[in-house]
User: What shape does this take?
Amino acid sequence: MTPTDVESYVQQLSRELRKRFVAGGRIVDEVRGHLVDAVERAREQGASFAAAEEQAIQRFGAPELVAAAFAADRARILHRCLVAAASLAGVAIAYVDSGATWDDTGLTAGAMTLVAAALGLLGPERPWLWALALGIWIPSYALMRAPSPASLAMLVVLVFPFAGAYLGRIARRLVTLVMP
Assistant: This one.
């Protein structure tokens, strides 16, 4: 053990937070403060500096687990926002698509694909949810307007948001692999 164990831990935690796209400036400072306090308490109880650092780090947990816990906490809030954004965008796209003068299926499909890709990039854990929240509005409107098996075929529209959301997820994974 060396006197830089706490700093090594903090640097590793910072890397793990960046891998999970969590802005860790304040988190890292707070963790550093807790570790330094724990080392000081252990030193006051007679532990050597190296033993105090080792004990503090062991109690705090592996940097990967600590970063994952912070990321999970942030993800809950993000997921709620993404569902709301996907639903609002889906309603807006469906509204435009249902207009009497609108006849551009390509733009509708492209808009759904691009929005879903952005959502998949922001929240790669649940691309299926973003795709459904975004794409279900056009088939729902078709079924409400004219309930028939032909209207049910409008579910094929979901291909576009699903493709976009999973492309966004793949892009996010590639970005994560490239990061140091």
